[in-house]
What we know:
Blueprint: E1 2-6, E2 9-13, E3 18-19, E4 25-28, E5 36-38, E6 41-43, E7 60-62, E8 68-81, E9 84-93, E10 99-103, H1 115-119, E11 125-129, E12 132-136, E13 138-143, E14 149-154, E15 160-164, E16 167-177, E17 183-188, E18 192-196, E19 199-203, E20 218-220, E21 226-231, E22 234-240, E23 250-253, E24 256-259, E25 267-270, E26 272-276, E27 280-284, E28 292-295, E29 299-305
Antiparallel strand pairs: 1-2, 3-4, 4-7, 5-6, 7-8, 8-9, 9-10, 10-13, 11-12, 13-14, 14-16, 15-16, 16-17, 17-20, 18-19, 20-21, 21-26, 22-23, 22-29, 24-25, 26-27, 27-28
Amino acid sequence: MNTLHTRYGSIPFAGFVERFADGGVMSCTPSGAVTLDTPYGALSPQFSTDDLRRRTVQSLSFHPTGALRAIPLERATRVETPAGALMAELLTFHPDGALCRVFPLNGKLSGYWTQDDEGLLAEPVRLDTPLGRIEKRIINVYFAPDGALLSLTLWPGETLDVPTPLGVLAARVGVAFRPDGSLRSLEPARPLAVPTPAGRIQAYDLDAVGISGDANSLEFWPDGPVKRVRTNLTRVLACGRPGGDEQGRELSFCPELRDSLCGDGDNEIVPMQLEFGPEETRIRTRPNQAWTALPNKNWDLRTEPFVAQFATPFGHMGCAC
């Protein structure tokens, strides 16, 4: 039997071992039962499969320092976390060994095992959060190296009431916090008209996917105003201010359309993102494109509803800013 020796114990392995340039182990696939001695207790990495949820053995991975990076567990295991005790099937760690993410479930979705099947196994968990103690079904929680709760990702269909600078708002998908516990961002559960320097914008992302609650459609500055927003439902009009460098210019920004991923010939809306700063407003209409920067001293902004089927991005913009 092939065996790897790590700071946590010896690991029997099968197949290829991925290594860093210096020869250290990057990842390996356990071939049998083993218990690793970790700061979070005795943990047994996954080594077996089944016909539905776990059709392959997931690799155990390490940081270049030799510290654990991720460990899929053979069975759900109780782990003490900064937010309370959780049952977990997957754990990830920071390079210094501190707990990073905790996943209560780690089933592999396929044609044989669906999100609904996995959802039947998801149970509410109790968490001590900056919002107080909550009890919700979650996909994962994310911790800073010092133990501060940075985000939680909700199970599809779950919502959470969150106190914000705009009042108590219902969140879906995720909620993110700063290291000091203050609210950083949330994913609105429904379209929400929020005040911004450009006017009221419907904060909502039809594309929001519940994989990570770290980055969400509505983000706040530490002192309360809206910092960043994603929208499928609002258009922004920019008019150059008289006497400024952009006098007479008119620009229009709206969510773009793309071919449906279903391949049925329909279009889908790509959310537009805006970021508001003390010196400029930045806009991008596709997730990976460069930002368009609009210095606040040169531009007046206003908003209006965006309806995709009537969108005419190349048409005339009546700019009555």
